[in-house]
Amino acid sequence: NDRGWIFSSLVSRSNYVIVKVKEGNVRSGPGTKYQKIGTVAREVILRRLKTKGDWVKVRHPRLTGWIYKTLLWP
What does the DSSP 8-state code read for residue 2? Predict the structure, then answer.
């Protein structure tokens, strides 16, 4: 039950997200029916391109694809 302060830029809608799981699958489209095109590791920073339902299209220097939003922060 700790309380404190944090910069608003860290919690506002951002163009960047951080992977919060050990490893997340990146897919060619927004759903599990799409091909897995790669994986990303915990704490990797990705650029958020757009959102479709529960899926987020992200870009990394070597990979662009879709990842399930619960695997990301914020």
Answer: -
